């Protein structure tokens, strides 16, 4: 069996200067790249997820409530949907797009260009353990980690390589992941954007 790194939504719109910026996002992008360079053999596979909105309906709010609706972000065809330039994507084997026409927080709701879902891709590559990094600890990282555990993968979140929106929602996320058996290492980055 094998392990995989899942890089969650390290996109321009979620980093400083983006339409839905999370403080520390650019630093997380650079940190992931440093880790991949320093430990090239740590993971057998590396995949990434992308928020990838065409028309997600009520997911975009005007004005947004920042609970169920958000500012326009990661719209297909915009620079905001692209990976942050500090993220080295050379090792990324597959990208899973989520949220084209509805809200989607978990990478397990996404699909590759050929339509394959993340869980099937991981199983096809004999992955039984996953490590997660990315943005945001309290939203898409949390949702992806919970689904990974639910799908039966041994799941670890490398919190020092995640960026969180707010302390209150992060506390809730950490408790929910702990309750689901997700292993957590380090502390998330929580900074004003």
TrEMBL record:
Residues 4-182 form the Isochorismatase-like domain. InterPro entries: Isochorismatase-like_dom, Isochorismatase-like_sf, Isochorismatase_Nicotinamidase. One of its GO terms (biological process) is pyridine nucleotide biosynthetic process. It is an enzyme of class 3 (hydrolase). Keywords: Hydrolase, Metal-binding, Pyridine nucleotide biosynthesis. Coiled coil: none annotated. One of its GO terms (molecular function) is nicotinamidase activity. The keyword Cell wall biogenesis/degradation does not apply. Belongs to the isochorismatase family. This is nicotinamidase. The lineage of its organism: Bacteria, Bacillati, Actinomycetota, Actinomycetes, Micromonosporales.
């Amino acid at each position: 069996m094998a392990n995989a790194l899942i890089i969650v939504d390290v996109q321009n719109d979620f980093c400083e200067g983006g339409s839905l910026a999370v403080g520390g996002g650019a630093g997380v992008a650079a940190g992931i790249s440093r880790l991949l360079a320093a430990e090239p053999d740590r993971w057998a596979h590396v995949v990434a997820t992308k928020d990838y909105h065409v028309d997600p309906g009520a997911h975009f709010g005007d004005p947004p409530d920042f609970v169920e609706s958000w500012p326009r972000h990661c719209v297909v065809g915009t620079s905001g949907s692209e990976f942050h330039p500090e993220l080295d994507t050379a090792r990324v084997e597959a990208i899973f797009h989520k949220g084209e026409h509805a809200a989607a927080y978990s990478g397990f709701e996404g699909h590759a260009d050929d339509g394959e879902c993340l869980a099937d891709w991981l199983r096809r590559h004999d992955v039984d353990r996953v490590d997660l990094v990315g943005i945001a600890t309290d939203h898409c990282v949390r949702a992806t980690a919970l689904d990974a555990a639910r799908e039966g993968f041994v799941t670890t979140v490398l919190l020092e390589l995640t960026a969180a929106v707010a302390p209150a929602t992060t506390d809730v996320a950490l408790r929910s992941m702990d309750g689901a058996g997700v292993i957590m290492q380090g502390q998330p980055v929580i900074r004003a954007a």
